[in-house]
Amino acid sequence: MATPTRVGHAPRVTRRLHRRFFLSPCAHCGRPRRTMADQQDKAALIAETRRRFEAEYLSDKSDKYDSRDVERLQQDDKWVENYLIWRHDVVDDTLKMIDESFQWRKEYTVNDLSESVLPKWLFESGALFLHGYDKEGYKLFWFKVKLHVRDQKQQLDKKKLVAFWLEHYAKRDHGKPLTVVFDMAETGISHIDLDFVRFIVNCFTDYYPNFLTKIVIFEMPWIMNAAFKIVKGWLGPEAISMLKFTNKSDVQEYISGEYLPPHMGGTDSFKYSYPPLVDDDFQTPLCENGPITSEDEPESKEEIDTDTKEPGDVNEEQNLNQKKMNSVEQISKSEENDKTEFKPKNAKKALTTFKGPLLHISPAEELYFGSKETGEKKCLIVLTNVTKNVVAFKVRTTAPEKYRVKPSNSSCEPGTSLDIIVSLHGGFSASLQDRFLIMAAEMDQSSGSGVPELAQFWKEVPRTKVMEHRLRCHVLESSKPSTLTLKENALNIPAKTNEDLHMQLTHLLQINKRLQEQIDRCLWFQQLSVVLSSLSVTIVAFCFYLAYSQRS
To answer: What are phi and psi of 197, to 5 degrees?
Structure first.
């Protein structure tokens, strides 16, 4: 058998030094990582891998691979490097892994997987999703085992869902590794699907190189010990070391409480729902990509659009812009009046506020935009710094092309409040799938709050010190005066429809009915117990009486 080939056929001693120098383990998780080593050697390894793959696996011009993967392999150095790292820089093993993973990617049409391709119920089930971070800052990939039902007819779709999530994250975060969490609370043997578990394991060991930090298994029932012995047999020694069996008392060694649900001993109030996709890609809104226009200046894109419109359309748009400007002016005046006329206790009753450790954020959950008919396109977010230091914040959105946010990257002084205006850009309208992410971190007193200082601060701040809060978008269908909508958004007064109230009332009545049935059942059993107890006492007393009579 031929000796595994390395670049330049280096002597054995050189190869050992190469392994030590090039693949020092990570201090946190023990995964192999490259140090600041000889960049020429790394480039040579990548070039050798590409050359040999083209010569040995693409020579027959077969169509067993997706051409997009082949093209990416030739262009993406990081991708090739991850394959090499995962196979310890052994080029022969690396080529085999690339071959197997590329064939798998084509079989599962990984490059074409999307929400529209997969059944909607898969996303709605909530068995698989991305949410939160572990203590080392790696993304968490959750598998709620109790929500998984074994069904061979659905197996292929479920496997494609796993591939969709992994590819979705790999492309978004450029291959940054993640941590898998098997939440096995309230599970039984009926939920275990070894074929599906093996598929998930194979995704990390064979198809997604250098993509796994650890597998956290929470509260595995003892009855499944035998099953997981089989799983361990599928893993190599390195992968076995990544298994972390935990329970409620020690899971926070790996994941902090802020990203753990209450049943795992955490404080994360997150509840899965779909749509939209959980943890979508939050990006920089438009206002950071160019100069920020003032409230009384028309936006540049809108100015350009008016040049191509008919005179009648221009006049209508000018009237609409004038109405918006008047609306904002009236709102600002009304806010000033509120400060002097309203009592603080009345304002507090109207506010719904998320109370975070660094910032209080109002509204707490949803931004209310008007429908196309109302034309209201602005919302207000109020941040209040509750610390003794300056707090830096950033605002991100899943739809950066639609929204302007002012300010979107700034700081808030201790004990003060700051208003953020979110406005729809151009002819866009708000969608229920749109979300906003507010990130905040406490700054040292010596740190400056200018643009360069903030940019440097966000590069250096550890993720564990960053507070995150998400806001959903809600579109109001009922028409309201435009001058009132922004103020109501700031106070977050939700407009409950009769249908919503009816559904809630019906739900409460059903719960009440079930409770009443349980109470009636308990009372019936209680009465039956009393009758049986009385009967037993009577029989015992009668037996004693007969025994006493016979003796006398």
So the answer is: -65, -40
Residue 359 CA to residue 353 CA, distance in Å, equals: 10
Strands 409-412 and 435-442: unpaired
Whether 131 maps to a domain, the answer reads yes
Burial of 234 (0-12, 13-18, 19+ CB in 10 A): middle
Per-residue pLDDT, averaged over 447-458, amounts to 81
**What's the CATH code of the domain at 387?**
2.60.40.10
Beta-strand ranges (E) seen in 53-200 are 128-133, 139-144, 178-183
Chain segment 311-344, per-residue pLDDT in tens: 444 444 445 445 444 444 444 444 444 433 333 3
How far apart are the C-alpha atoms of 193 and 129, rounded to whole Å?
18
Side chain identity at 204, as an amino acid letter? F
Residue 278 lies in a domain: no
The answer to whether residues 100 and 237 belong to one domain is no
Q: Kind of pairing, strands 359-362 and 178-183? A: unpaired
pLDDT digits 0-9 by tens, 149-181: 888 888 899 999 999 999 988 887 777 889 999
Tokens of 436: 């906003």
Measured distance CA(327)–CA(34) in Å, rounded: 57
Residue 543 C-beta-side C-alpha neighbours within 13 Å: 6
Please answer whether residues 23 and 85 qualify as being in contact, where contact means their C-beta atoms are separated by less than 8 angstroms. yes
Rounded-to-integer distance, Cα 336 and Cα 331, Å:
9
| Domain match, 449 and 359 both | yes
Query: Are 384 and 416 spatial neighbours (Cβ–Cβ below 8 Å)?
Result: yes
Nearest to 248 by CA among 264, 268, 266, 259: 264
